[in-house]
Specification:
Elements: E1 3-8, H1 13-30, H2 34-38, E2 48-54, E3 57-66, E4 71-79, H3 88-102, E5 107-113, H4 117-125, E6 129-131, E7 143-149
Parallel strand pairs: 4-5
Antiparallel strand pairs: 1-2, 2-3, 3-4, 5-7, 6-7
């Protein structure tokens, strides 16, 4: 099984396709809250995108965008259901962290939903700690925000 991790941007067709699957899944998970979150998850002009391929098939993705001068915000993390449980999301996350560190960012932050059990487990497993909700997520009951310092 050949695994390849590709650094790209948000115009990548495989990323766009995986994000469409993610949005469909989140619409079910988030239910009535989906519209609120959807406004913050547009993928126009994201310069830092990772797509993971196995035997040439795109199975997982993630991205980051600058949050401030020292931090990036991890966005659009997704693994296809059939590919879950193989550590692919952790590989994508590590690649995003390494790329952010190479660009001299010091920390990653992110938001996920309290109903997204797999995502909560992923971030806990990878050393992320719950932080106070930031920005547009302040006061949003369903939002769980995480942070992690990068080793640069």
């Amino acid at each position: 099984m050949k695994t390849e991790i590709k650094r790209t941007n948000s115009s990548n067709a495989d990323f766009i396709s995986l994000v469409a699957e993610l949005d469909a899944a989140l619409k079910i998970i988030d239910g009535d809250d989906h519209g609120f979150y959807d406004q913050f998850n547009k993928i126009d002009n994201i310069k830092n995108v990772v797509v993971l391929y196995e035997n040439g098939s795109p199975l997982a993705c993630g991205a980051f965008k600058p949050h401030n001068d020292n931090q990036v915000e991890i966005k659009r993390m997704y693994s296809q259901p059939a590919a879950r449980g193989k550590g692919l999301a952790s590989k994508v996350l590590l690649e995003l962290e390494n790329w952010a560190a190479e660009l001299n960012f010091k920390r990653c932050v992110l938001e996920t939903g309290e109903r997204q059990i797999e995502a909560l487990a992923l971030y806990n497993k990878n050393g992320y700690k719950i932080i106070p909700n930031y920005g547009q997520y302040v006061g949003i009951k369903n939002s769980v925000c995480f942070g992690k310092n990068l080793l640069n």
